[in-house]
Amino acid sequence: MYLSLVPYLGLAYSGFATAATINLTTPSLGFPQSMEQSWAQYSPYFPVDTYQAPPDGCSVTQVNLLQRHGARYPTSSDGKSIKKSVKQLQGASNFSSPLEFVKNFTYDLGKSDLVPYGAAQSYDAGQLHYARYSGLISGSELPFVRASDSERVVMSALNWTAGFAAASDKQFSPVLSVIISESGNDTLDDNMCTNAGNSDNQTAAWLSVFAPSIADRLNTDAPGADLSLDDIANLMSLCPFETVANEAPSPFCNIFTTDEWASYEYYGDVGDYYGTGYGQELGPVQGVGYVNELIARLTDEPVQDETQTNSTLDSSPITFPLNRTFYADFTHDTEMIAIYSAIGLFNQTSPLDLSQPNPNRTWILSQMVPFSARMITEKLQCNTNGETGNYIRILVNDAVQSLGFCGDTGNGLCEVDAFVESQQFATSNGDGEWENCFS
Questions:
Q1: Please, what are the domains in the chain?
Q2: CA 142 → CA 47, 100, 323, distances in Å?
Q3: What is the mean pLDDT of residues 81-93?
Q4: How far apart are CA 418 and CA 424, in angstroms?
Q5: C-alpha span between 118 and 370 (Å, rounded)
Q6: What is the residue-wise DSSP string for 25-75?
Q7: pLDDT of residue 280
Q8: Active-site residue numbers?
Q9: Does residue 178 sit in helix, strand or coil?
Q10: Cα(329)–Cα(38) distance, rounded to whole angstroms?
Q11: pTM over 0.90
Q12: Backbone phi, then psi, for 20, in 5-degree steps?
């Protein structure tokens, strides 16, 4: 059963002018942020940087929000694996500290559903985005909202609209206008490229580097458990899932050290880099459809795409309107990774090493796709030297991204035309790679 919106619709609103005055509903999880940020794609949302207002002479004229669903329970398959590993651990003959709690532990998490904490994350985001961009909103200019049809994604979109409405004191109430089926063409999901590989070999390689010492230690503290390397990964994943579900620290978190959590973070980084990121031959092409939709919105021109887009939806002014001031799309982390990679964000100078992390890498999932992650593409009108032009800048979790590939000179701005020109991978439908998804 998915979350009711009632707990979030009923929150009091006292009015605010800036994001700093919002009373957020997501509670503290009880850990230092440094630990929560080592949970890779299962990290709770946090702003990577303080939001920077547009440069002098520039004003935002359009916002394109792409947001991941909020925190959830494990998927059905992951939940089965975690439960199996817990049972394996509980088969030990006895337990040394700090594993004594395991004797009486019961695994009781749901499957795939949004948890209350995750619903609150989306509600908070709606409040924040109204506060930040309210100047773009009017009775005739409400955000146009879409979601991929996974229920946790739909509920995240609805909680976002609820937060947005509450922040405006119910003056502006956007609605979820389009839910895109994940069984067909969908630019908000990565389910279409049937020939795409996965990252199983790469994650197994890194697991074989960092997990043996953990398994040895835990098997010593719980003789007879005979934990495998996969069990270690599953038990570490239980920490963030239990924590966000119960909104209190899971006892599984403290059985691993800071260095071990850093290794787990890299385990997630490797998984998505070689899953739908730059390390996967058919990864970036799975983000092309959204990029072409973004270009259509920025240029006020019909969508030109022959990859993931649903042409029926995208050719209709009802289901894909142009010339709007605010668009909000809700999706999954793996699709966001593909979109980042299609655009050219977070590009590595070399592939992720499977024997040791590069501490200077740009690819860190907790900063890219935590629960409720958001990428915002702002279209701006800027007056420079007496001339007016249209520009964009991209923020990921409030951090302005460097767009050197389209002429960014240090403030994150690119001319819209230069950005479109830089996206030839998308505008060429993936340079022929899309056909490789099926041939």
A1: 6-72+115-196+255-436 (3.40.50.1240)
A2: 25, 54, 12
A3: 98
A4: 11
A5: 11
A6: -PPP-SS-HHHHTTSGGGSBP--SSPPPPPPTTEEEEEEEEEEE---BPPP
A7: 98
A8: 69, 333
A9: strand
A10: 26
A11: yes
A12: -65, -20
